[in-house]
């Protein structure tokens, strides 16, 4: 779902989501992006949380203001009506794994298919989170590349703790969403 703000014809609002297994850092990534904060305390997401942030990206040679309505979904694999509603009419998404847990990488395909079942054809970006713990990594950049090739997309190593590549990943998603809207 996207809306064009009537007062500024180059401004857009896009509904996007983050999906992935529990404890991969989805909420922490959103918190870092929107509030530029990080908290070590783990808080289980029940249902979905929504936050908003506006970024400026280049599109067709112009600065375009894009507001992202970011739906952070709980990481339980048995989708309920809450997740179905949250994924309905999204324009883009991020699928997140924890670099220190190989099992979360193996779940990426599940999450992509769950999203595509409800919102087919949307752009998705792969995030390998917790890059601040690369010494403990069980997932390689090559593996993230394979996952992003499957999506015909891109991937980022991110760290909600340090902020590495968080802003860049969300801006790239905004750019992908703009391209998708212009192709409609």
Question: Any overview of this molecule?
Answer:
- This protein is an alpha/beta fold.
- The chain has one domain (2-182): 3-Layer(aba) Sandwich (Rossmann fold).
- The chain is 33% helix and 28% strand.
- It has helices at residues 26-35, 81-87, 102-106, 108-118, 141-150, 166-182, and strands at 2-4, 12-19, 48-59, 62-73, 92-98, 124-129, 155-158.
- Strand 3 and strand 4 (62-73) form a beta hairpin.
- 40% of the residues are buried.
- The mean pLDDT is 87.
Quick overview of this protein structure:
With 184 residues, the chain is α/β, with parallel strands linked by helices. The chain has helices at residues 26-35, 81-87, 102-106, 108-118, 141-150, 166-182; strands spanning 2-4, 12-19, 48-59, 62-73, 92-98, 124-129, 155-158.
